[in-house]
Amino acid sequence: MSITILGIESSCDDTSAAIIKDYKILANIIANQSVHKHYGGVVPELASRAHQQNIIPVIDHALKTANISKNGLDAVAFTRGPGLLGSLLVGTSFAKAFSLSMDIPMIEVDHMKAHILAHFIKENASSKVPNFPFLCLTVSGGHTQIVRVDDPYNFETIGETIDDAAGEAFDKAAKILGLPYPGGPEIDKHAQLGDPEKFSFAKPRIPELNYSFSGLKTSILYFVRDMLKVNENFIIENKHDLCASIQHTIVDILIKKLIRASKLTSIKEIAIAGGVSANSSLRSYLNDLKQKMDWNLYIPKFEYTTDNAAMIAMAGYFKFIKNDFATQDIFPYARKP
Ligand code: KG4
Ligand code: ZN
Questions:
Q1: pTM score > 0.90 for this model?
Q2: Whose CA is nearest to atom 16 of ligand 1?
Q3: Level-2 CATH architecture, domain 4-123+304-321
């Protein structure tokens, strides 16, 4: 028997709905919220209002794209957290109402686990999926973790950031350079034309498999401030090299700990996930490294890196087959309890 699930993602500033039939995505619709561009970051109150406006049209669009009626759905999966509470409430409330009115079960999904489980979406019959156990470098706007995944239900965080996330480091650096939000894709774009060795910034010395990015932000801030005192056109004249050097520093920090984690655990199945896994430099460094490290490397498709509901539907599928359903008294969480 095949299983069809509606997935809903509303944890931050993307409203997304997806339909999965077993391991195959039939639709993955994402409405970005351009309103935040004017503010240089996500404004929580505006995000929840925009989710409220977008959620019905986005779900309708997903059903039409998948060419199925809502009566053909076996369950509704939604992001319970972590994320912005007001945003999460929109998806959670919709899922509750939909589950009641359609008389189908609802499934709560952890956003970070979903980023990782997106690797199990089957694009075609020959799609390669990670073998267990594998390590996943999960890098987004709010999280930076190295996770050991033993099966679709057992995740162990073996390293994580003690302050800023890698995505936040990209976004904050971009803000210092006067680039728009979100900064990660902007830095990636300008870095293509720059010299990654031109400028060097302070690198953290954090024990074990943990990360820290707040010192890097300060190092960039002070460096740029000092250079602007000498040359007010410093950023404009060096934009590409600055972006390439910042990106190189972040990617280097990320990869060094991943190598260490692989050596410590003797795991050579390596995956990346989350918004920052869209970064072209991170992808190409890892591709260069995989032969040297003898890794089987799993890099997600671009559309499954930044926030999307396909990953929520995929994670929901794994819970469905275990009959792991949520009840109507469920509430979202901003941070993992
Ligand atoms: O996973 P995601 O969409 O949302 C969260 O769960 O946080 O990640 C968003 C983060 C942002 O910080 C954004 O700047 C970063 O991912 N990002 C990138 C790239 N695309 C998105 N960072 C570096 N390079 C990119 N190409
Ligand atoms: Zn995310």
A1: yes
A2: 275
A3: 2-Layer Sandwich (3.30)
